[in-house]
Amino acid sequence: MVLNLRCADYGFECGFALNAKATADTIQKLRHHFEEEHGIDYTTEAVIQMVTNRGHTLDSIRR
Ligand SMILES: [Zn+2]
Predict the structure, then answer these.
(1) Deepest of 2, 20, 21, 34, by most Cβ within 10 A of its Cβ?
(2) pTM value?
């Protein structure tokens, strides 16, 4: 499953987007982006929650 994650979907005025498989690594990339670009240090769980709240299924990265 491929995720299409756009930073703008999470409330930022930002053109950053990720198209990648739904893996823990992809979640980490999004988390790092929030931290590096926006100075917000979300936890991994928080980012997973944000993505799943957008209607994405992340069963593959949950254990
Ligand atoms: Zn951004």
Answers:
(1) 34
(2) 0.88
